[in-house]
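My main concern about presentation is that the manuscript never shows what a single data entry looks like. For the editor and my fellow referees, an illustration may be useful. For illustration, here is how one protein appears when written out as sequence plus structure tokens:

***
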Amino acid sequence: MQQVTVFRRTIEGEPVRYGLSLFTSDRGIRPADAAKAAEANGFDAFYVPEHTHIPVSRDSDHPGTQSAELPDDRYMRTLDPWVALGTAASVTNTIRLGTSVALPLEHDPITLAKTIASLDHLSGGRVVFGVGFGWNAEELADHGVPPNKRRTALREYLEAMGELWSKEEASYDGQFVKYGPSWAWPKPVQKPRPPILLGGGGNEKTFKWIAKSADGWITTPIEQEIDGNVELLRKIWAEAGRVGEPEITVLAGKPDSEKLAHWEDIGVTEAMFGTPDKSPDEVVGYMERLAAKLGRATAAKPETEEGRGVTTKLVGTQSVSDDSVDAEPSIRNSFVEAFRNHPAGVSIITATGDDGPAGITSSSVISISADPAVLAFSLQSLRGSASVIASARSFVVHLANSANERLASTFATRGAVRFGDDMPWSFLSTGEPFLHGTGHALRAVPLNATTCGAAVIVTARVVDVIDPQHMKACHMTEYVLPELDYDYAALEPHISGEIMELHHSKHHATYVAGANSAIEQLAAAREDGTITAKAPLLSKNLAFHLGGHTNHSIFWKNLSPNGGERPEGELAAAIDEHFGTFDAFVNHFSAVATTLQGSGWAVLAYDTVGQRLVIEQLTDQQGNISIGIVPLLMLDMWEHAFYLQYKNVKADYVKAYWNVINWEDVAQPRHGGSVAELGFCTHEVDVCEGSGLIATWRPTLDTAARNAWGLSFGDGVEKTERTPSVLISEGPHRDLYRFGALWRPRGNPVLLVPPLAVSADCYDLRAGQSLAAHLLDGANTPYLLDYGTMRYSDRGMGFEAWVDDIIPEAIRTISDLHDGAPVSLIGWSLGGTMSLLTGSAHSDLPIASITAIGTPIDYTKIPAISPLRLIGKYTGDTPLTSATNLVGGLPAPLVQASYKVTALQREVLKPWFIMRNLHNTETLARMESIDKFMAAMPGYPGKAFQQICEQLMLGNNLFNDTVTLAGREIKLSALSVPVLAVGGTTDVIAPIASVEAITSVLTGAPSVRFEKAPGSHLGLVAGPTARDSTWAHIDEFLKENAPQLVSTS
């Protein structure tokens, strides 16, 4: 079951919330009136119970009376909780609406999931799902629930409902709940679901159930031992690896200030008070008296709270009443509407700092109050962009919509260019960066910040709500995303509906937004006099995005579910005239498409100068094409157009394309005239031979010139684009990232373990050289460990730091995120060594398999270190390690130089290689990515380098089965998981023989598979043949050893 981190109250020292519980019935105050009065009196939550009926004949004891006797007759008169809370939602704005408790097992889980999601949607994300196993066995039996299976059944119900709430296409196959692939909307506003609190007696069994399947605990009316049970729950919660602290709601009885203060100190998050089932006047009077006793009318938080590492301070220079804040008198309605229409649960926060615009992605933004409009969010650290936002005078919170996953991923990715050429953004008149294409945007000023360790909770007042439709009308009227003439699935099986939807609604939409942003920024630059400085960049930006918009607009019209066949009339005659036959034309066009390097388009066009049909390759969205042509037929060869369906087999995609071409549209050129009106020649065209030669070579010369400039004076031949990733956890030398979607892990978990002294980018050099992106495209969720930079203070770190601490911690974290599923490890070079040692040393870790790429086992088979081994035979490791011990390790420059020595021929011949390939952008981009990778290599810690020299290079301990770390022996023969080893045919660092030796060492593994692959050491992971060799072996191995999900029953 997916776990929820509840951001509202996870920090020690925050005041206890106060909630009210009304035992609703068909007499007394109505739930809507009670909830409205509770909100008006400052209470935080309103709860109602559930019983569908009470069987007359019962043996079950009531928890309060300890007998079959009921306390009163309200149990048989209870209102339906979801109808009651629906009426309450319609008359309130901020109070949380919960059940204390609901009995999900008495409902159909699919229907109940729809009910709760609808209520959370309509209330703006205020539902608290309090659940119980049910004490009344006879009541449950009437619903077909076996009394001895309540816990398992409830867990399945919640898991099945969670799938419907969090997945676009959900399915579930359990003992008590089964349904096939299904769609279900709306989704809850709270992501991935509303918080789930279990009501039940405090004991170890209950708390283990909560730690695995819920987000907190509601006590029973007879609970006595609060302190001990809170401590026990928090201990079990932490041992289960849950983030933050559990919600703990205590049934409070009378308002005792000392008791409430004590509960706050021990971590209770909410005190719930019962409300009498009486007339409206009596209930409202009771609420007012209770609120006065609790100090709700006059309570104020101190400016600074000391204790347990928590500090609250006022930030910024404005207060809530500051007249300088340009706010509307009341924005309550638009503020509530913004959160109600915030389905993604993810926000992007932007601000302007001294160095320009900054932004981060956050999944913790919540509404605190509607009037005044107040929100809060958490910053996990005060580094980089987060520090800019924490100190900003104002910022903008963009509530992401379902089409913003790529945008949100960019702002969550380490090292990503967030306000680059392809980012549709502009400055607001008030100075904050504004992102086009998101949902509502909230301009806010900070009120205070609360720190707890490295984390910071920011509270801010919203002073303006920007409607995305308004921004579109004001700023983006020039270009719009065109509607298609057919459904997304209409072109199947030739082009899948999934591809069409992503291609049109996300990729094309990004180009539209980018073009409009460029137009707007150019206009602003003309007005403020900065056009000279900004024109080069903005013009390039406009060309790229406008090219993407126009190209796709033609592409959609070129397609039709009724397409295929062959053209007729003038177009058919012109094709025969200029290409010989239609088949010759098809072969020519297909060859242009399949041989295009990098990204771009194949284009059939009319050349207005030569007055003939031509086929050209368009690179990216705007390059390598003649300016005097009129495009007729365009084929998108960017990977996003076909990879989900056809993988890397471009030829199959191009072959399928001929089945969906709308030849009627192709025959109608873009200016609206016919083919005949373009003046197609039916005779030989007299074109000068010299001008034809220049026309043929000009694109190649332009490319070569552009690449030469980029390598010599510019920023390179290509902007590096890495796979989007999200920081999952961080710590010294152990930052853990997840590639891909922000909202929910999917597929088999895979951990990429980098070697020491190598940048973690080895698995994600660039598009086309990214094992991470390849794994993500399959049925996997790849994760990455990043060790960061090694400094002198890290000189005492040895292999045991990774084998016993850093890697096991990452494995457990990932497994917990995937409901206990075992994790597949992939390690390149020494990353493979550390993975093998970790698995051998810790048989209890949830490891599914290990892949070791270019990982030497027998160091006697490495010719490059033979001289060192010979010297070491007589001197030990002293000559190798004495200097490194003095400086704390092997410095980064020496590591980089050593790596270059292993590829000396490459370095010597590089100038000739560049000259020979100046016209080939893809080849130069690969070279450039490797150069950047080598330049970013960090150093080795002193102790780790000594262990490499002493135990691996000189002692050959891996091949001898025993490595000694921190005084204990680790035997590779103890490894008990499947292993794949891949060796490179031209690898001089880890020759084939040194890698293949693994097959004779891992005697305890259930299977050891060895494969050869073409390539050098780095080429195994990121070379031009890696996709069809190393990556293909990994795909097959992971599929064979896919982890079986751990049962949650």
